[in-house]
């Protein structure tokens, strides 16, 4: 199984809720895609002008495929992009703080590898943590989630924040093994 096949199946799960930009070019490097999800919830009394509360939630997923060896430098570059580009430009939209009704933004890196991944990289993924709170949490937070997919050994590794995503990625492996497209 290769990353292209895995990505095509995975994209079908995301398409119902996410908007895709394919390919996505960032700092001169081309990535497979950037997927965006936005949700707005509010509560009002009688009139929409009498709003009681509102909450905005977002998720940005950057998909990166590596057909050759995935090394520590690649991982460091991706996490640098997450902190230096995705958080300020996508979560805060270039401003000092998030919007007033912002509740949370998930910044997700989905790394798809054709070749087996070293134990060092797996440890880096599992121990990676990034959370940024805005205005003492009154404007929510942004959190990094990392999913590393090793298509050669059919394994999925995540950091703590992405733990619940593992089930979806294992389902993609199961579907592909059964021959479902």
Looking at this protein, list some descriptive labels.
181 residues, alpha+beta, 7-stranded mixed beta sheet, two-stranded antiparallel ribbon, 4 helices, 9 strands, 30% helix
Structure description:
With 181 residues, the chain is α+β, with helices and mostly antiparallel strands. It has helices at 3-14, 72-91, 119-127, 166-178, and strands at residues 19-21, 24-26, 29-31, 33-44, 51-66, 102-113, 131-133, 141-150, 155-158. The strands form two sheets. Strands 1, 4, 5, 6, 7, 8 and 9 form a seven-stranded mixed β-sheet that branches. It has a two-stranded antiparallel sheet with strand order 2-3. Strand 4 (33-44) and strand 5 form a beta hairpin. Helix 1 (3-14) crosses helix 4 (166-178). The longest helix is centred in the middle third of the chain and has 20 residues, at 72-91. The relative contact order is 0.16. The model has no long low-confidence stretch (mean pLDDT 92).
Topology overview:
Elements: H1 3-14, E1 19-21, E2 24-26, E3 29-31, E4 33-44, E5 51-66, H2 72-91, E6 102-113, H3 119-127, E7 131-133, E8 141-150, E9 155-158, H4 166-178
Parallel strand pairs: 5-6, 6-8
Antiparallel strand pairs: 1-4, 2-3, 4-5, 7-8, 8-9
Helix pairs in contact: 1-4
């Amino acid at each position: 199984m290769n990353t292209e096949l895995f990505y095509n199946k995975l994209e079908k799960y995301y398409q119902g809720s996410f908007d895709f930009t394919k390919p996505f070019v960032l700092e001169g490097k081309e990535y497979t895609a950037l997927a965006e999800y936005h949700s707005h919830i509010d509560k009002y009394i009688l009139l929409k002008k009498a709003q009681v509360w509102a909450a905005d939630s977002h998720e940005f997923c950057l998909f990166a495929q590596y057909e050759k060896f995935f090394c520590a430098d690649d991982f460091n570059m991706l996490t640098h992009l997450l902190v230096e580009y995705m958080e300020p430009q996508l979560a805060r939209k270039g401003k000092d703080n998030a919007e007033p009704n912002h509740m949370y933004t998930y910044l997700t890196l989905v790394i798809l590898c054709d070749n087996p991944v070293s134990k060092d990289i797996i440890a880096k993924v599992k121990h990676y943590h990034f959370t940024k709170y805005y205005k003492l949490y009154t404007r929510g937070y942004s959190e990094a989630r990392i999913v590393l997919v090793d298509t050669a050994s059919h394994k999925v590794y995540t950091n703590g924040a992405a733990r619940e995503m593992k089930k979806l990625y294992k389902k993609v492996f199961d579907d592909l093994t059964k021959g479902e497209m």
